[in-house]
Write a structure and sequence with these properties.
alpha+beta, 3-stranded antiparallel beta sheet, two-stranded parallel sheet
Protein backbone atom coordinates (compact mmCIF):
# COMPACT_ATOMS: atom_id res chain seq x y z
CA UNK A 1 0.00 0.00 0.00
CA UNK A 2 3.04 2.27 0.21
CA UNK A 3 2.48 3.16 3.87
CA UNK A 4 5.29 2.74 6.41
CA UNK A 5 3.15 1.38 9.25
CA UNK A 6 -0.38 0.50 10.34
CA UNK A 7 -1.02 3.92 11.87
CA UNK A 8 -0.18 5.70 8.62
CA UNK A 9 -2.29 3.24 6.63
CA UNK A 10 -5.30 3.57 8.95
CA UNK A 11 -5.07 7.38 8.85
CA UNK A 12 -5.04 7.17 5.05
CA UNK A 13 -8.14 4.96 5.07
CA UNK A 14 -9.95 7.27 7.51
CA UNK A 15 -9.09 10.47 5.63
CA UNK A 16 -9.11 9.43 1.98
CA UNK A 17 -11.50 6.54 1.68
CA UNK A 18 -14.46 7.70 3.74
CA UNK A 19 -16.68 4.86 2.50
CA UNK A 20 -14.17 2.16 3.38
CA UNK A 21 -13.99 2.27 7.18
CA UNK A 22 -14.12 -1.52 7.12
CA UNK A 23 -10.63 -1.48 5.57
CA UNK A 24 -9.10 -0.11 8.78
CA UNK A 25 -6.68 -2.71 10.11
CA UNK A 26 -6.95 -3.77 13.76
CA UNK A 27 -4.10 -3.80 16.22
CA UNK A 28 -3.29 -7.30 17.46
CA UNK A 29 -1.83 -8.29 20.82
CA UNK A 30 -0.23 -11.74 20.99
CA UNK A 31 0.46 -13.12 24.46
CA UNK A 32 2.82 -16.04 25.05
CA UNK A 33 2.63 -17.30 28.63
CA UNK A 34 5.20 -19.73 30.03
CA UNK A 35 7.57 -18.66 27.28
CA UNK A 36 10.40 -20.75 28.75
CA UNK A 37 8.42 -23.99 28.23
CA UNK A 38 8.18 -23.25 24.51
CA UNK A 39 11.63 -21.74 24.15
CA UNK A 40 13.39 -24.63 25.91
CA UNK A 41 11.13 -27.45 24.75
CA UNK A 42 12.53 -30.99 24.82
CA UNK A 43 11.71 -31.09 21.11
CA UNK A 44 14.80 -29.27 19.84
CA UNK A 45 13.45 -28.87 16.29
CA UNK A 46 10.31 -27.22 17.66
CA UNK A 47 12.27 -25.06 20.10
CA UNK A 48 14.66 -23.80 17.42
CA UNK A 49 11.81 -23.09 14.99
CA UNK A 50 9.71 -21.38 17.67
CA UNK A 51 12.56 -19.08 18.74
CA UNK A 52 13.46 -18.24 15.15
CA UNK A 53 9.88 -17.39 14.19
CA UNK A 54 9.22 -15.42 17.37
CA UNK A 55 12.36 -13.32 16.86
CA UNK A 56 11.40 -12.59 13.24
CA UNK A 57 7.87 -11.67 14.29
CA UNK A 58 9.11 -9.49 17.17
CA UNK A 59 11.49 -7.65 14.87
CA UNK A 60 8.92 -6.81 12.21
CA UNK A 61 5.53 -6.85 13.91
CA UNK A 62 5.27 -3.36 15.40
CA UNK A 63 4.90 -1.64 12.03
CA UNK A 64 2.09 -4.06 11.18
CA UNK A 65 0.28 -3.29 14.44
CA UNK A 66 1.14 -6.57 16.15
CA UNK A 67 2.33 -6.24 19.73
CA UNK A 68 3.90 -9.19 21.52
CA UNK A 69 3.87 -9.93 25.22
CA UNK A 70 5.91 -12.83 26.53
CA UNK A 71 5.89 -14.03 30.11
CA UNK A 72 8.03 -16.50 32.00
CA UNK A 73 8.55 -17.54 35.57
CA UNK A 74 12.08 -18.71 34.73
CA UNK A 75 14.05 -15.68 33.53
CA UNK A 76 17.34 -17.40 32.70
CA UNK A 77 19.79 -16.28 30.01
CA UNK A 78 18.82 -19.39 28.02
CA UNK A 79 15.26 -18.05 27.87
CA UNK A 80 15.75 -14.28 27.71
CA UNK A 81 18.48 -14.18 25.10
CA UNK A 82 20.17 -11.16 23.57
CA UNK A 83 17.87 -11.45 20.55
CA UNK A 84 14.80 -11.39 22.79
CA UNK A 85 16.10 -8.33 24.63
CA UNK A 86 16.87 -6.57 21.35
CA UNK A 87 13.42 -7.25 19.90
CA UNK A 88 11.40 -6.35 22.99
CA UNK A 89 11.95 -2.65 23.75
CA UNK A 90 10.00 -2.75 27.01
CA UNK A 91 10.52 -5.19 29.87
CA UNK A 92 8.61 -5.59 33.11
CA UNK A 93 9.83 -7.46 36.17
CA UNK A 94 7.78 -8.38 39.17
CA UNK A 95 9.50 -9.71 42.27
CA UNK A 96 12.06 -12.38 41.39
CA UNK A 97 14.01 -14.69 43.66
CA UNK A 98 17.54 -13.56 42.83
CA UNK A 99 19.69 -10.68 41.67
CA UNK A 100 20.76 -12.83 38.70
CA UNK A 101 17.14 -13.20 37.55
CA UNK A 102 16.64 -9.45 37.91
CA UNK A 103 19.75 -8.68 35.85
CA UNK A 104 18.64 -11.13 33.18
CA UNK A 105 15.38 -9.24 32.72
CA UNK A 106 16.32 -5.62 33.41
CA UNK A 107 20.12 -5.53 33.45
CA UNK A 108 19.88 -4.30 37.04
CA UNK A 109 19.61 -6.26 40.26
CA UNK A 110 16.67 -4.48 41.85
CA UNK A 111 13.66 -6.72 41.08
CA UNK A 112 14.53 -9.21 43.81
CA UNK A 113 13.78 -6.57 46.45
CA UNK A 114 10.29 -5.67 45.21
CA UNK A 115 7.35 -6.02 47.58
CA UNK A 116 5.13 -8.28 45.44
CA UNK A 117 1.37 -7.80 44.89
CA UNK A 118 1.76 -5.65 41.77
CA UNK A 119 5.01 -3.89 42.71
CA UNK A 120 7.12 -3.91 39.53
CA UNK A 121 9.97 -2.37 37.60
CA UNK A 122 9.39 -1.25 34.03
CA UNK A 123 12.35 -0.79 31.70
CA UNK A 124 11.72 1.13 28.49
CA UNK A 125 14.40 2.65 26.27
CA UNK A 126 17.05 2.11 28.92
CA UNK A 127 15.17 3.84 31.74
CA UNK A 128 13.80 1.80 34.63
CA UNK A 129 10.97 3.08 36.80
CA UNK A 130 9.17 1.49 39.71
CA UNK A 131 5.39 1.34 39.40
CA UNK A 132 2.47 -0.24 41.22
CA UNK A 133 0.01 -2.30 39.25
CA UNK A 134 -3.22 -3.64 40.63
CA UNK A 135 -3.11 -7.07 42.19
CA UNK A 136 -5.93 -9.39 41.19
CA UNK A 137 -6.33 -12.51 43.32
CA UNK A 138 -7.28 -15.90 41.88
CA UNK A 139 -10.63 -15.58 43.64
CA UNK A 140 -11.30 -12.25 41.89
CA UNK A 141 -10.35 -13.73 38.49
CA UNK A 142 -12.74 -16.61 39.08
CA UNK A 143 -15.51 -14.22 40.14
CA UNK A 144 -15.05 -12.13 36.97
CA UNK A 145 -14.97 -15.21 34.73
CA UNK A 146 -18.15 -16.56 36.32
CA UNK A 147 -19.86 -13.20 35.80
CA UNK A 148 -18.85 -13.13 32.12
CA UNK A 149 -20.07 -16.72 31.66
CA UNK A 150 -23.42 -15.79 33.19
CA UNK A 151 -23.89 -13.03 30.60
CA UNK A 152 -24.18 -15.54 27.74
CA UNK A 153 -22.18 -13.27 25.46
CA UNK A 154 -21.47 -14.64 21.99
CA UNK A 155 -17.79 -13.96 21.27
CA UNK A 156 -17.86 -15.80 17.94
CA UNK A 157 -19.05 -12.87 15.83
Amino acid sequence: SGHKDISEYNNYVKNKLTNSKRDILPYIVMIVDEFSDLSLSDDKVFSKSFNSHLNKLAGKSRAAGIHLIIATQRPSVKVITGDIKANFPARIAFRVSSTVDSRTILESGDANSLLGSGDMLVNFKGETIRVQGCFVSNAEVEKICNFIKSQKVDFSS
